[in-house]
Amino acid sequence: AALLWGWLLLGCSWGSAPPGVSAAALLTATYALDDASGPGRQFDGIGAVSGGGATSRLLVNYQEPYRSQILDYLFKPSFGASLHMLKVEIGGDGQSTDGTEPSHMHYENDENYFRGYEWWLMKEAKKRNPKIKLIGLPWTFPAWIGKGENWPYDYPDVTAYYIVSWILGAKQYHDLDIDYIGIWNERAFSSKYIKLLRYTLDKHGLQQVRIIASDRLWEPISFVLLLDSELHGVVDVIGAHYPGTKTVPNALLTKKKLWSSEDYSTFNDEVGAGCWARILNQNYVNGNMTSTIAWNLVASYYEELPFGRCGLMTAQEPWSGHYKVEAPIWITAHTTQFTQPGWSYLQVDGHLEGGGSFVALTDGLGNLTIIIETMTHNHSQCIRPPLPHFSVTPQRATFYLKGSFYMVETLQVWHSRLGFESGNSTLFQQLHPVKVWKGSFSLDLSVDEVYTLTTLKTGQKCGCPEPPPPQPFPSNYKDDFNIRNPPFSEAPNFADQTGVFEYFINASDPGDHVFTLRQVVVQRPITWASDADQTISVIGNFQWVNMTVTCDIYIEKQRDGGVFVAGRVDNGGIYVRRTKGVFFWVFADGTYRVTGDLAGEEILMKGLSGVRDNAWHTLTLNIQGTSASGLLNGYPLWENVTISKPSNGWAAIGTRSFEFAQFDNFHIE
Fold it and tell me: Glycosyl hydrolase family 59 catalytic domain: from which residue to which, for each copy (predicted)?
């Protein structure tokens, strides 16, 4: 009995040897955790991005209680992902990956701090975790910022004013304090602009807002910071994207905080979870990065758009209420539930002898959290950059706790094993605590595992009710946009891909069309991607083949204005310019066209329609098999147009150019 008791205390074979490996043959190594020589870098938190772009688009349309459940999984402390930071896009009316997000200033004389859904999302995050850090970053800018040029730095005072207005609006209208602000996502930075941004922030009493640069690569920002002492004084964090867990010498020489300010971007299956587990540790172990931020927070956009399901969880069916808490949520919890921004990393090497890594963090008050990952190469590849080969083998790790941790007697244990062969994963399960005997304990580590060992007893895995089962988008769908005080500026389920479509109140209308949906971007924005030359918003089920789309339309632009309804639309996001489908256009000059593409180059039919601007008309597009026909105000206008491809796709509405136009009584069958 005494022998057995001693064996249990040592925790030696705690977690038996992996199958087929005798305990004697296991690779063994020892690691010391000591705070005697002072802490390592301060930990700044784990976060995720909403935006860049329109990644949370469908989330807002979920009914309760499902919407709140999703938000709890993301933000509620000691519950699910328990995120420390939320980074949002500062909408700029341009395409930023999976759609456009509206600007708070479409035009120079326009300010509205209630557009889009990022304000709402930040408030929901703060409601659950008042300590969550908030970050804002623009991808695109409205056209007036560049005064005709596709560039935001020619008038840096205008750009700084625009960004600071967003920060002030967050506080004034939503009581949100923005903690960090970025420059221009994955595009050039201007030293002059960054300095002017700092000056403008300070002038408005926003000294507490810190600046991140440049949300691209480690260089040239690190090199420029070393050369320009004034710039060095105003940049607080160097943020790099997809750094592959590595940094560069110049970045370390700046002595700045180093963040992976966008990372992951990987399909959220088990391999995505493996990617996330590996970089959460190794961004610090290999690259000294003290924060890692996932793109994206939640996959709440049509899955067939670019980078479908590259979120920490999936919520892309507001019409059914179905959502899925994917493995990356529980991988996140291994770190976030047992650390907080302001904790410090311990100064340890962090590489395991048999492959894999560990980090150790402390709050400086006696608490200790150790996170271990043993992800194998093929089970942890992120979407980018390419991952050099490495090997991981089963191993026994013995940890010696020294310094102020010598007195620790017990550690709580949380465990995940990503099951690639079996198909069964164990995610974030609490195991029996491990006893620390004379300052040490041992663990037998298999491959593709994550362990958290911690003095904290606050971890939780929610046993929540299952969400409703998945359902396809309704095959008969109507929206008359008749809503006096909409909770959001955009109609449910419409996903804008170029331009911005907003609820509109037509005060002058005699009654039939008081409440409409209006396209409001009238100049091409300062773009981040290749926005189309036409505006377009898609909706529905990408698998749809046969459909009838009906919509009332109102062209506002005289002479060369035009609008369309479309079906079998096959593309969006950053690929919106190459969108194909069946497009039924009418123009203010009284003509119509049927085209096989959004660009309007593949003309299938054309003729006279008698449509004019500033009047309401009803368009109906009917697609059955290889044939399409169109009605105007209920009467046949064209028929028997042969359609070869695409064979399926969304429905859509849009305009010929960046122009005002209105839509009403949308119906799809």
Answer: 43-337
Q: Is residue 15's pLDDT more than 50?
A: no
Q: Give the count of domains, the chain.
A: 2
Nearest to 341 by CA among 570, 83, 155, 148: 83
With tokens 């930990």, the residue in question is: 43
Question: What kind and span of H or E run contains 570?
Answer: none
pTM exceeds cut of 0.85: yes
Q: What is the 3-state secondary structure (H, E, C) of 468-491?
A: CCCCCCCCCEEECCCCCCCCCCCC
Q: Which residues are catalytic?
A: 186, 262
- The CATH number given to whatever domain includes residue 184 is 3.20.20.80
CA distance 262 to 242: 6
How far apart (Å, rounded) are the C-alpha atoms in residues 211 and 181? 5
> Looking at residue 515, what DSSP letter applies?
E
CA-nearest of 574, 459, 427, 577 to 96 is 574
Last residue of a domain, one of 315, 330, 348: 315
Residue 325: inside a domain: no
333 domain residue, yes or no: no
Beta-strand relationship, 322-324 and 603-608: unpaired
Is residue 300 included in any domain, yes or no? yes
Q: Which structural domain, as residue segments, surrounds residue 123?
A: 44-315
Residue 360 region, left (φ>0) first, then alpha (ψ -120 to 50), else beta?
Answer: beta
pLDDT over 60 (residue 11):
no
- pLDDT class for 23, splitting at 50, 70, 90? low
Summarize pLDDT for 408-448 with one digit per residue, the tens: 999 999 999 999 877 799 999 999 999 999 999 999 999 99
Pair type for strands 368-373 and 291-295? unpaired
Domain's final residue, options 315, 340, 372: 315
Residue 524: in which H helix or E strand, if any?
Answer: none
Domain membership flag for residue 158 = yes
Name the nearest CA neighbour of 81 among 45, 117, 113: 45
Count CB neighbours of 408 within 10 A. 17
With H, G, I as helix, E, B as strand and everything else as coil, classify residue 466: coil
Distance CA 35, CA 366 (A): 10
DSSP SS3 for 199: helix
Q: Which CATH number fits the domain that encloses residue 499?
A: 2.60.120.560
Return d(Cα 88, Cα 137) in angstroms, integer. 6
Strands 535-539 and 650-655: antiparallel
